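User: Okay, second chain of the day. Same drill as before: sequence in, structure tokens out.
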Amino acid sequence: MYTGYLIVMDGIRCAIQGNGALIRLDTGATISAYTGVTLDVDGCVITGGEVGLGYADCPASRLTNCTLAGNTMGLALSNSQVTVTNCIITDNEQYGICWMTGPRPANLYNNVWGNGQLNYATFCFG
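Assistant: Same drill. Structure tokens below.
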């Protein structure tokens, strides 16, 4: 189990390969990717944060085989291209998947349900 937060910036390409790992974010924390970062996340359970996973101004990234649950928002996007595949996104206080600007995420074979205000939302943060 990992506890804390993660911020990736400035064009880095990286991946989190969890193999079922639990990532328990600190209250108000997030896993964030900013400005040209490609962040692929696979096989993680992400819970307890403000935003489970957030992307801003990022090129193609992948979220695969993950669970985002028990956050304020599950996945938040702003001007980023993310493909979400085989994920469970549930029981987040406000939104499951939300995007402010840019393309909607490619949403393939996911189970997105039971999120507080909306499962999918546009212009949901800012």
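The chain has no helices and 15 strands.

User: Thanks, on to the next one.
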